[in-house]
Amino acid sequence: xxxRILELREGILKKNDELARALxxxxxxxxxxxxxxxSSPGSGKTxxxxxxxxxxxxxxxxxxxxxxxxxxxxxARRLARSGAPVRQISTGGTCHLExxxxxxxxxxxxxxxxxxxxxxxxxxxxCTASYDLGESLRAVLLSxxxxxxxxxxxxxxxxSADAFVITKLDLAEAAEFDRESALRALREIRPQxxxxxxxxxxxxxxxxxxxxxxxxx
Amino acid sequence: MVRSTFCGGxxxxxxxxxxxxxxxxxxxxxxxxxxxxxxxxPARSEDPAPPRAKPGNALHELSIARSIVERAQEALDPGQxxxxxxxxxxxxxxxxxxxxxxCFDQATAGTPLEGCRLEIEPVPVSLFCRPCQKxxxxxxxxxxxxxxxxxxxxxxxxxxxxxxxxLEVSDETTHSRAS
Lengths: 217, 179
Prior knowledge:
heterodimer; A: about 220 residues; alpha/beta; seven-stranded parallel beta sheet; globular; B: about 180 residues; three-stranded mixed beta sheet; three-stranded antiparallel beta sheet; disordered N terminus
């Protein structure tokens, strides 16, 4: 036996990363801004997305959404009430979305007729960090009910965010949410990401969030 | 109050990060691309695509282990086996070494990697501090703050690696001819 060394020096997720890069280029050429919404389960992604889709429609923007879950199309049904085209990605067991799932579900959509494509990821603060979906913006949600130290507990995801959205502001008092601690934790894990404080249920803070999306800056 | 101040007190009104250590291309693509209006499109929840059956991937590291095995096998010639595989895993990669080792046996069973030694080079987080103009390693990965000036830094230099560095392979065909 002659052992020898094969140098690879290659990303383990190379396939996903290459596909994500191709998607990113495709999105850029089509002029569509793609937002990956990531958070723990139950943080309010779907409600925020419903409100966002509605607000964008009122501003005359064209948006579509892909929503990922292991099972059911409950979220897609909810989101479709906004009037936007919506597709459900049922992963069947995989706990995060990957670029190939996104690509498959785009078939038949005219991307150049869209201003925005939202991808609601599977509720998961761990695995979602590693998978580039070709998005233009990664928005990580933190609800007032889940603890101010979430950012410190999940550094890979929180440190990869382009923007943070604090959700369920209406429950902050009841949950004794320590706003200063949360903002500090977010600042210390990703200082350059802006923070939007919202309550989709009460319509708070949505205008700033949608302004930000529309400005692209 | 719907916006907060960061970065030493400066209000960032235009704050898509200028540098995105995770993926610089992502920031660029958000700035580009003109908005368009389009004709109405009927709203509907489209039929879900068939679930993608990928049993047992609920544990993140098992999925990673399977990706490693898949890639390694592509690099092998027929009859070759892997003796040692060397990986680089960054502290902020989202992959935990212990969990990966736990899943590795399952992922390699019945493949040319079965029984191989798994070597892992951990890569600690390293950031660049603009005010101090130098790299630093934070005391913990949850607080990316310069130990000298206490400013948070978003400029990651190292720590997200998830890389197959090398394979040490044996040529089984030579062995079998000799036996």
